Amino acid sequence: MTDDINSPGYDIPPEMQGQVAITTLDKIYNWGRRSSLWPMMFGLACCAIEMICTAASRYDFARFGMEIMRPSPRQSDMMIVSGTVTKKMIPQIVRLYNQMPEPKYVVAMGACASGGGPFKEGYNVVSGVDKFVPVDVYIPGCPPTPQALLHGLIKLQEKIDTQSIKTVRWYRREPLEPIPVPVLGPDIMDPREYTAIKNFAREKADQPLGEQPVIEKEEA
Amino acid sequence: MNEEILIQEKSDLERRFPGVVTVDERKGYEGYVVNAEDLVSCATTLRDELGYDFLSSVTGVDYFPDNQMEVVYHAYRSTGGPALVLKVQVSREHPVVPSLVSVFPGADFQEREAWDLLGILFEDHPNLKRILMWEGFHGHPLRKDWREAYHEEDGKPFKSRWPDGHVSRAEDKNVFHKNVDYPADFNPDTWTPIGDAAIYAGVGKIEHPVSETAISTDHLVVNLGPQHPSTHGVFRMVVRLEGETIMDLEPVMGYLHRNHEKIGERNTFLMNMPFTDRLDYLSSMSNNFGYALAVEKLMGVTPPERAEYLRIMMAELTRISNHVWAIGFLLNDLGAFFTPALYAIEERELILDIFEAVAGSRMMCNYFRFGGVARDLPEGVFEKIRELVFDRLPRKIDELDAFLTQNEIIRTRCEGVGILTPEQAIAYSAAGPVLRASGVPYDVRRADPYGIYDRFDFDVAVRYHGDVYDRYLIRMDEIRQSLRILEQVVSDMPAGPIQEGKPQYQVRVPAGEAYGRVEGPKGELGFYVVSNGKPNPWRYHVRAPSFINLTAMNEMCRGNKIADVVAILGSIDIVLGETDR
C-alpha cells in the first residue's frame, strides 16, 4: 500500500525521493481509514469468542490496524456482528448502528449473522442481520476461524480502497436517515411495515385456523 | 448408598404420603407422581426430613394431544446419591401448579422459564413473568401446537430441501420474507408497547428506608447491558442503588435465546449433538458428554473402554481451557485489562489445537457419539497431550498462580465480596465452582459418578468463604485436579475400538425419559430427554448451570457496591449461549 501511495505516475526528482510523496486525495484518505479500523467491542455469541482470539496474541489483528476495540459506538468505525442475532437483541443492534458515526461498516461474522445459520428456523432468531442493517462483508463459518475473520477484515480493507470521497454516502448533500428501530410487539415489528402488518392480521382473522394469509407485501 | 436402602426408600415414600404420592408406572419412566395441591408440603418434608435439599432441575413437558402437562422436578441430596424425580400432572387448558420458590428458591428462574415457554402457571410465584422472551410475545413457543413462522415439518429429516429440483427457502414462503408472524386482528396503531416497564418495576419492591438522622436519598435504578463490555455477552442487569450500594438486582436475559429446545425437539437425536456444542461454547466437549449420557441411558449402550478414556480426557481438557479463560476474564473485569487474559488465551489455544486435530473444529467439536466418540486420536496428538499435561500446563498454571493469587489489588477487590453462604448456595441450586467455593463439596463426578470417573484419584476442590476470591481460587484448584486426572488418563489409556457397534445417523431410542448430568466447567449440566420411540426427542430440556447460578446473583450482590457487580458476575462465570439457550 505504501508503494501504491508513492507511485502516482509522476516522476519525482531523485534528490527528493523518500521525502516527498505525490498521491491522490482518495488514496491517502482511504489509506488512513483502512489502516486504523476500530471495531466496536460488542460480542453476541460463539463467534465473539473467536473474535477475542483473533484479537489475542496468537492471531493479533492489531497487525492490521484494528487493535483498539471501542466499547462505545461513538468511537468505532466497524461493527463486527459476531453471533446469532435474536429478535430481542435486534432493536439494540439497530440503535448501536445508528449511534455509530459515519463512515461505518458492518461485518456479519459467521453463519448466524449472515443468514440465521443453524438456528435460522428458531422463533426468536433473525435470519441474518442484513434484514435490518446494511452489511459490507459476510464471513462464512460456524464459527469462522480467526484466519477467516482476518481474511474478512482484509476484504473490508480492500472495499475501503475502492471508495471515492466524491461518491461516499456520508459526503452527499442530503442528510442520512437513521434506520427505524424495530419494536417488540407480539413479534418483532419494523415500523416501516405497520400497514402491511395490519393488513396481514386482518386477513388472518378471516382465514381458517392455522392457515397463513397470502397477500402481497406493500413496498415500504 | 447401596441398592437395598434405595428400594426401601422407594416403597417408603408411597407409604409416607398415602394418597399423595404414587409411583410413575409408565414404561421407561422413573420417579413419583405427586398431587398438585400437596406438592409444597411434600417437597418441604422431602427437604427437611429425607435430605433432598438440592433441587437440580425444574421443567415441563407438553403431552399433546393428550391434554396433559407435566412438571418434572429432579431433587438430589447435597451429600450425594441418585435423583428423586417428582412429577405433577395438570391439564393443558388449566395448567396451574403451586410454586416451589418458597421451599427451593432455586426454582425461581426455572419456573419462570416454564411459564414463558410452556405456559405453565406457578401459583404464588413472587415474580412470574417471561424470562427468555419479552413480555407481550404471542404464545408459549414450546407447546407442541405452537408453530413458528418458518415451520416446515414437525420432524427432521425433512422430506426434501429441493422439491422438484428447485431450492426453496423459508423466507420465500413468508409474506414478510422474514421470520415473523402476528396474531389475527392485531393492530399496531392501537397497540401500546409494554417495553421495559415490567423489568424496572421488578426491582422497585424495596421500601425506602426512613431514618430520622440520615440524609434522605432517592433510589436510583441503573441499567447495565445488554451491550456492555463486562457482561460476558448480551446479558443485562437492572440494579437499584442507594448511593453506591446495591439494594436489589434483577438479571435480564434472553438476548441470545436461540430456541435450542424447540429446534432440538424437531431434530433427530444425533442432529442435536452439534447443537449442544453451541450451548456453552467455551466447553463444547462437556456439553456433548452430558447429552450423550442422557441418550445412552435411554438406549442402554455403554461405550468401549478407549472411548471412555477419550471422553474423560476431552472433558478435563475442556475444564482447563474453560477455567483459564474464566480466570483471565475475571481479571479483565477487575480492571487488569487484557494482559492476564492474553496469557490465559495462549494456554487455551494449545488445547484448542488438540481439539482441532481430534474433532476437526476448534470450538464446535461435535465429538461424542452415542456409544462412543467420533474419531480416534490422530497421529502425534497423544504426544502433544502428554507434553501439555505433564510439562507445559502445570508450569503455566503455577506461573499464573504466582502472578495473580497474592496480588494485593486482586485480594482487596475480591476478598469478602459477593458472599454466598453454603445454605444459600444449596437453596438457590447453585452448582459447580459457585457451590463448591461456598463450602459444599458437591461434585457430580464424585456425588453421582458417571463415565469412569470412579476409577480416578482426585479431590473435590472446596473453599469455604463463598466470596469472589474463593471462586477464583477454586478454579485454580480444579485446574490442578483436572491435570491430576489427565495424568492418570494419559498413563492408562488403553487401545481398542472407540465406538460400540456401528456408527449410525439414525439411532433407535426406546420410549421413556432420562436425565443425564455431568459436572461441566460451569456446574451441573443436565439433559432431560423424553423419547416416544420416534426419531425425534419428544422433549429435550437443558439444565443450564449458567442460567441457574444466576438465580443467586441478587443474593450475592445485595449490600455490595455497584463497582463489584462486574467482579461478582465474572466470578460466577456465565456463558450466554447456555444461559439463554
Structural topology:
The complex is a heterodimer of chains A (220) and B (581).
Chain A: H1 2-6, H2 25-34, H3 46-55, E1 78-82, H4 90-99, E2 105-109, H5 110-115, E3 137-139, H6 146-161, E4 183-184, E5 188-189, H7 194-206
Parallel strand pairs in A: 1-2, 2-3
Antiparallel strand pairs in A: 4-5
Helix pairs in contact in A: 2-6, 3-6
Chain B: H1 3-16, E1 21-23, E2 32-34, H2 39-49, E3 54-63, E4 68-76, E5 84-90, E6 96-98, H3 108-118, E7 121-123, H4 170-173, H5 197-202, E8 220-224, E9 236-242, E10 245-252, H6 260-266, H7 272-277, H8 284-299, H9 305-334, H10 339-359, E11 368-369, E12 372-373, H11 381-404, H12 408-414, H13 422-427, H14 433-437, H15 444-447, H16 468-492, E13 512-520, E14 523-531, E15 539-543, H17 545-549, H18 553-557, H19 565-572, H20 576-580
Parallel strand pairs in B: 2-5, 6-7
Antiparallel strand pairs in B: 1-2, 3-4, 4-5, 8-9, 9-10, 11-12, 13-14, 14-15
Helix pairs in contact in B: 8-9, 9-10, 9-16, 9-19, 10-11, 11-16, 16-19
Describe the protein's architecture and organization.
The complex is a heterodimer of chains A (220) and B (581). Chain A is mainly alpha-helical and 220 residues long. Chain A contains seven helices and five strands. Chain A has helices spanning 2-6, 25-34, 46-55, 90-99, 110-115, 146-161, 194-206, and strands spanning 78-82, 105-109, 137-139, 183-184, 188-189. In chain A, the strands form two sheets. A three-stranded parallel beta sheet of chain A has the order 1-2-3. A two-stranded antiparallel sheet of chain A has the order 4-5. The relative contact order of chain A is 0.12. The model of chain A has no long low-confidence stretch (mean pLDDT 85). In chain B, 51% of the residues are buried. Chain B has helices at 3-16, 39-49, 108-118, 170-173, 197-202, 260-266, 272-277, 284-299, 305-334, 339-359, 381-404, 408-414, 422-427, 433-437, 444-447, 468-492, 545-549, 553-557, 565-572, 576-580, and strands at residues 21-23, 32-34, 54-63, 68-76, 84-90, 96-98, 121-123, 220-224, 236-242, 245-252, 368-369, 372-373, 512-520, 523-531, 539-543. In chain B, 38% of the residues lie in helices and 15% in strands. Chain B is of the alpha+beta class and 581 residues long. In chain B, the strands form five sheets. Chain B has a five-stranded mixed beta sheet with strand order 1-2-5-4-3, covered by helices on one side. Chain B has a three-stranded antiparallel beta sheet with strand order 8-9-10. In chain B, a hairpin with a 4-residue loop joins strand 3 (54-63) and strand 4. The mean pLDDT of chain B is 87.
